[in-house]
Amino acid sequence: MSVEHALCCTGNPKRTFTSSSYLVVGVGRKTNMQATITGQAFLPSEYTDVKKEFARYLLRRWVASIRMDLVPLSVISTLAGVTTGCIIGRNLTFDGRPILIVLASCSGIYVLGAVARHAIRRPIVAQTAQAFGLMMILSLLASLTSAAVAPGSGPLIDEALARADRAIFPWWEWREMIAYLGNFPQIIKYLSYVYISIGWQPSLILLMAAVSGRDEIIKRLVAVWSFSIALCILPFRWLTAAGPYAYYKVSEDVVPGSLVGLPFHFPKILQGLKTGEITVINLEALTGLVSFPSFHACAAIVLAWTFAGWGKKAWPMIVLNVGMILSAVPIGGHYLVDIIAGCFVALSAICLTKGLEWQHQPVAGAAAMRPKTTDADL
């Protein structure tokens, strides 16, 4: 006896009830079952086998329901472990009460969402809260981990990145491009808005998915975001770079209109952490220290891929993320090879995500095996 016979009434199996001569596993409502379900009788003597198979089915559903959390929780645990080890091993001081408050708040959102998923009528709302909490924790831990790893990082690889740019794009002159773009401060300002859209785009996706009931998009976004952060942050120890603004000694005045000062400020923090001048990990140290690969380029591919789940309606957001990739060079201060590496990381994260079976697949043919009911049966 297969579980399909047990799940004759698809939906949310809740309890076991009896019909006059037959035991039936069904949803939480009574129906007058006939003696045959899809042509085969469900006899009481077969109940033990069905119960075992049904228990295995419920276990598979439970595993499928928590798979969304396994990847981000694994990445969070890894980042937390690396951060703790670096802070202790290198005698750094962690002055991060505000950081801990934010982490605790996001953890609380995640826990409340996990509890609410089994208590409210629309669990996707709670699932959205869970996803928001996880992504906030991931983003904060990514910055914290890069700051903790920086003191023990290897030599800067800017020379190698600049040579790679010249080898792949011999016509490309980074300083000349920035100097020319500096003549158009309004364009730089618009590119800045595009660049910082990374801060609100994930929340927009979660909101759209919650409103439209697309829980599979929430699962995929959380998973691919987790993989992307892990692939960008964990190699930072060996792939440290100060960025082209510091390498080519280009001042902030060359790009008037830019709303992002990070590419000019983070090299000083990175150098202070590497030389030991900065030994305190606090909010000031939590800047984006990862230059290679470009996380903005990676995020742009990931976000565009996620928005594509809504089809042609999402084309404005896809165009926005193409603009984010372009803005990562002048606004984010990246080499071209940083952008290529970021796109490669995004494609790798997408492949890893698609390789996992996130959605629980309903039992084949279960819908066709629903018993016919009438108003009198209810």
Features:
14 helices; disordered C terminus; 378 residues; mainly alpha; 2 domains; globular
Number of helices: 14
Low-pLDDT residue spans: 1-42, 358-378
Strand content: under 5%
Given helix and strand content, the structural type is mainly alpha
Q: In total, how many beta strands?
A: 4
Categorize the overall geometry: globular
What is the ordering of alpha helices and beta strands? HEEHEHHHHHHHHHEHHH
> How many individual domains?
2
Mean pLDDT: 79
How would you portray this structure in words?
The chain is mainly alpha-helical and 378 residues long. The chain folds into 2 domains: 3-51 and 365-377, no CATH class; 68-354, no CATH class. 58% of the residues lie in helices and 3% in strands. The chain is built from 14 helices and 4 strands. The protein has a two-stranded antiparallel ribbon with strand order 1-2. A two-stranded parallel ribbon has the order 3-4. Helix 12 (295-307) crosses helix 14 (336-354). It starts with a helix and ends in a 24-residue tail after the last helix.
